Write the structure tokens for this entry.
Amino acid sequence: MTCPYKLLPGPSATATVPPVTPSSDLIVVGAGIVGLAHAVEAVARGLSVTVVERDERAVGASVRNFGHGCVTAQTGEALAFGERARGTWLRMGRAAGFSAVETGTVVVARAAEELAALEELADERGADDVVLLDAAAVGGRVPVTGALGGAFLPRDIRVDPRAAAPAIAAWLARQPGVTFHWATPVLGVDEGVVRTGRGELRADRVVVCTGHDLDRLLPEVAEEAGLQRCVLQMLQVRAPGLRIDPAVLTGSSMLRYPALSRTAGARALRGRWADERPDLLGAVVNHMLTQRPDGDLVVGDTHSYARTHPPFSDESLDELLLAETRSLLGVHDLRVVHRWRGVYASAEGEFLRARVAPGVTAVSVTSGIGMTTAFGLAPSVLDSF
Ligand SMILES: Cc1cc2nc3c(=O)[nH]c(=O)nc-3n(C[C@H](O)[C@H](O)[C@H](O)COP(=O)(O)OP(=O)(O)OC[C@H]3O[C@@H](n4cnc5c(N)ncnc54)[C@H](O)[C@@H]3O)c2cc1C
């Protein structure tokens, strides 16, 4: 069988490289949430697994996000994956010892179009999944200003992403038949073989879960899918005295998540913002927040798409996010504790699944919802081998 993807030359000629490692049933490349979800599912199926990660621990998108299990605002396959994933998240939180809680989401409406969008969603999904709130009820759940009303989405969950990835990896490492190779870059994959910077690994089945770095490891696959890197600016702010259990979404979120963005209300909002809020549309803002276990707020986000990005963050985007947050919370005393950029893979569809060689599948969530969906996606990928 010929493979169109050439192996990069590995360092196998050097004396320090260990010999070929005996096989596992499955090799997972990448220890972000997508790779870890595949490893968890493989363990549940009684398979032996080797996870290969280039860094000493996961530091990619999976620890840089809001930790929002945004289930209800998805549609189609993503909704089904999200529903399945939420149960796995809650079980893994208990088993591995990190925060995964059924807080739900409050979507705050501060314009008539936003209220209309939420009413359409409630009509479609029913009162169990979308609880419409009047202004007072919104205020009773989250400390925001200017709400005309809103909706509570009880199926959504919140996890602590900075704790989850390391805790799941540690839990996996305690399971029989699981091996991790940290600080081990994968240089190439082909049928039955994964070539790393430390030698070769062998397995009949390989899943490549390198997130946006798929474009560097398998550029032809990424190009075929039209993959771009989406860069998001994020803030961690200290807001003493605020308690916000649910994730909080706003009007800009309604332009983003498909169950809301397809409503007439959201389309009308976008039309009005084209004149009134070109700053939000230009920066592709999804203004939302979650509260960390330490009380700080994770605030975001902006979106910028390119195959290669400039290395410089734009301070005006952070200022825009801060201004929106001050306005939403009616709080001026917000101290920025951390700023960071997150990157995820972006393409036309929500999920990239490509068979790159017999027994080798590349998997990437290409719509910024990997925390919501990975634990639902992974079983379907393993089913496909
Ligand atoms: C700022 C931000 C906020 C987000 N918020 C949410 C949210 O609230 N809810 C939600 O559902 N989704 C959210 N997302 C999306 C979600 O975080 C991603 O979809 C998900 O984390 C992708 O997981 P991953 O495992 O594919 O990628 P990553 O977490 O990036 O992991 C990929 C791993 O592969 C490793 N790797 C790469 N190349 C190699 C190689 N050659 N050899 C070995 N290892 C390699 C990397 O080191 C990395 O650890 C957000 C994303 C960002 C950036």
Notes: Residues 1-17 have pLDDT under 50 and may be disordered. The domain at 102-157+227-347 is CATH 3.30.9.10 (D-Amino Acid Oxidase; Chain A, domain 2). Residues 76-96 form the longest helix (21 residues). The two ends are 17 Å apart (CA to CA).
